[in-house]
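Why predict the complex rather than its parts? Because the way molecules touch one another can change local conformation, and only a joint prediction can capture that. The input here totals 262 residues.
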Amino acid sequence: MRLVTWNINSIRLRFPLLARVAEELKPDVICLQETKVTDDLFPTVECRALGFPYLGFHGMKGYNGVAILSKRPIDALRMPSWCERTDCRHLIAHIGNTEVHSVYVPAGGDIPDPDANPKFAHKLDFLRQLTAWYGATYTPDSRVVVAGDLNIAPLETDVWSHKQLLSVVSHTPIEVELLNAMQGSVPFVDALRHFIPPAERLFTWWSYRSPDWTKNDRGRRLDHVWVTPALKDSLRSAQVLRDARAWTQPSDHVPVLVELAD
DNA sequence: ATGGTTGATGGTCAA
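Output of the joint prediction:
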């Protein structure tokens, strides 16, 4: 199974780029975040025309929104909600004998202080709740893929400057600690770092707020694919489609591909 | 330290 995760930042605006991702990466499953579309306006006909007959989506007006597009039958869909909100940040599809999760962790605002910044507090709470739930719901024998924009870059090599980003939301010690706790809850295997050495720099996001995203390569690895230990030996390859950041009218995130043996 | 850009929306808010 070839699985792509991508924060598309509006599926309607960037549908032509989604078609390009489908054509170039030939995924069997695509997990999307920030679809930014309500369910009644989701482009179901267009997705099916791309070769994905089986669709799950969970969206709201203007913000957030997750989706899973599949060439293989989706047997069941679930949409957990966290922090007593209906934020459309989590979608689960049962595909064959495996669960695929599309997750969009709150970005957390600009100030890395939960007392001063409710958005940061929400991000931390979201991570704590998800961690408790994953730990209580799954075991190492579960067949689960967690894919999405987790909005945290855990390793020093996941950011362009570890020192300069220590107090920047996405790379603060408290966030990294909570993300590591979430990964350890089952535990999950980091599929990207399974193939790409942790010593090597690896980014999946480059800010829009730079006139030239390639200048000094100031990126971060915010998008992740994790698998349960039961799937570890099935991992075949992983790839970040860095080129997609240079496409016309790009998302600030690029697609990440992980290939698993069936 | 600050500001920079993009998207949905229709004034700003979120990222």
